User: Fold these one by one.
Assistant:
Number 1:
Amino acid sequence: MSIFEQIVSPENLFCAWREFRRGKRAKPDVQRFERHLEDNLFALAEDLASARYRHGPYKKFHIFDPKHRIIHKATVRDRVVHHAVSRVVAPLCEQSFIFDSYSCRIGKGTHAAVRRIETFARSVSGNFTGPCWALKCDIRKYFDSISHDVLLRLLGRRVSDPQTLELLRRTIESYPPVDNNGERERANWRPDRQSHIATFCERLSRFLRPFRERTAGREALSPLHRRFHPAA
């Protein structure tokens, strides 16, 4: 059975549905889909297998938790497809992920990340007997800024099945792009990994420089600054 056949099989779609509906059974759109569940899933399987499936539009809304975020919500039908694809494709990509990546991965998650941070903090601080410095940062509009072309190229290194790649392409390109102010081009993933690392180190070095000049943090941050930017 090919990767694509695994994705579109009714068995996989039913498993994807069970994963998707966790914590959502009270939602009106989920209840409407479940009202005719078998008909909906078998029709979805047929549309996928015959290449008639097309990803639907997204519903855009705003949340404040506490910061303002714009959410694009796919339909229930499309989110079942997302889970079905992930169930088959994610294990193929898992081996390329770094260990300390905790979002949307089996066996990871928030609690595992907290335990890992505590381990590092305990090691650096001498079992919490000394100071421990940490850098907390966020990448603005991270998912919006991912280059679709680069993402598909990376997926192509793990997935060779043409039907699966076409489904991935249609799904990824269904997501609305960010505004047209050039933000996507500035924040694109770089296909050259070494170039990406060098750029990150240079920017981190610039960020650390003013902190390094402060007396309280100079001793702790100077070695880190030299590590990322030896010529400084």
Note: The chain has one domain: 3-189.
Number 2:
Amino acid sequence: MPSDQSTWLIAAPQDGDSEGMLQELYSKLSQQSKTFSRNSIGQLYIPSFKVTDQLHNVLNTHLTVWPFHQTGTLDSLIALSEELPKQDAFFTATVAKIVETLRNLLNNDPAKLSQHILVNEHTVDNYLLKDWRWNDGRYGVQKGLRDMTEVLNKEMTSIDNMMKTKLNNYNLAKGSLTQLQRKKIGNLSVRSLADVVNQEDFIQDSEYLETLLVAVPRNLVKEWNAKYERLTSMVVPRSASAVASDDEYTLFSVVIFRKVHEDFVQKCRENKYIIRDFQYSENLLSKEREELLLADTTEKELWTELLRLSRTNFSEAFQLLVHLKVVRLFIESVLRYGLPANYIGVIIKPEPKSTKRTLTLLKNHFTYLSPRSRGAKPKSSSGGGTTDEFVGEYQTLLEQEYFDFVLPGEELEGNSLAPRFDLYLFRTNIGQTRGLEVVVDVVQHTVLFSSATSSSDMYASLVRRQLGGLVPPKIASPSILSAGQGADLAPLVNFYSKLPKGPAAAPAVRGIKARYFDGKNASAAPVVLTMVAIFGLGYTIDYQMHLKHHKNHAH
């Protein structure tokens, strides 16, 4: 279940009036909740990025058997879909760090924070929900998707490096100022003594004697007065004098011979007296004042610079994050819906605590996109067997929600002004998509079903996207989801008979032939069936194919 503090990006194939769909969704959402605002839903204009002719040849629509020997572009597309979640996490983390920097600079003041978390001088909600459009002037869609993501990543990396450098410089300056200020406001064991002592408290220009300053806890003052002369030899009698006092310590000066300096310091430590390392200088006080003033000025200058830079970089980084989300949305849409790459995008900011109702409304609205086979009751086979025994294995999979989560972005915790994103894609109607018509020329590609090559990994990735990620347990034979009437079995027999007979493929081939292609069941072949794609990685993918025999096709 997505967060009720998130902003949702939704994509569906464009098959009608996008503005009409937006208005219809708003009407339904406002009827569901009287407080739902028109400003909480907006159009997301998904650009049609450059897609090569090779990809057109491969991505017919939604689901087909892919001729991998032609799919260098497809390989790149799938690789991007696997890489972008990591890039997305980096983008999200960078934006989150900028927000956290602003929050710290502004002492966690929500009112001040809202004045600086702006995108092009507009609030985040206005930027997203006021008919968001791709910045074509800056990121031309004529570029390839790989080039596009590299440009976005390069800019975000530059922002991240710049912020790290500036933040480090500011933290050093702030640390230096804090240290100097602590010397002014701490107790006598840590604070600066330049404005506490004066020249008369010290023996000047003595070759053998020196004056030490000792901070004695208030509860040990009586003990100090009684024993300081006997801590070591060569301590000047009656030389201890109270210089200053606060709530925790009393500062004493004491005169000793230089030759016993180390012994006296050690004895003081053993008795929990604190020796202050201090050398009196006439210009020490003015020097410390100058250091404090310089540190304070430097800290304020760097604070101002970092605040300005964080405000600017938040705007830039947030735009980059949204553009990357849209690229991901486009790539996933192409892999699931196919071409032409025309998709409707909608941005919705659900009301708090209404996520479940909003999600239910969207599911009902996009019902026309769900597969016909979803929830369909299996029919009996006229060959004497039924499909009920096979459906049970996948019942929980068939009843799952028909929309897919696509690696939602990380939430910017504690800051509703910079929301997280959840990306959804609603699947097209499998039964109506012409790209599902798998003709008999797929015979030449059957090697994919038992190959351990990267192509099989690509195919598995595509199947998971297009069929909602249905990955059943390992099985050695397929199960029928529904049966049809009067289909010609010749191309199916030909197809399966040419599958490689390797160790991984052989069990599935035998099961398919025994169950569906013997004489007893030949008169009732399935039109829609579940095939098993067995790959060298040792897992199986369950997917549906709509089979159509072209009688005029030559094998």
Note: Confidence is low (pLDDT under 50) at residues 53-72, 371-420, 426-460, 462-555.
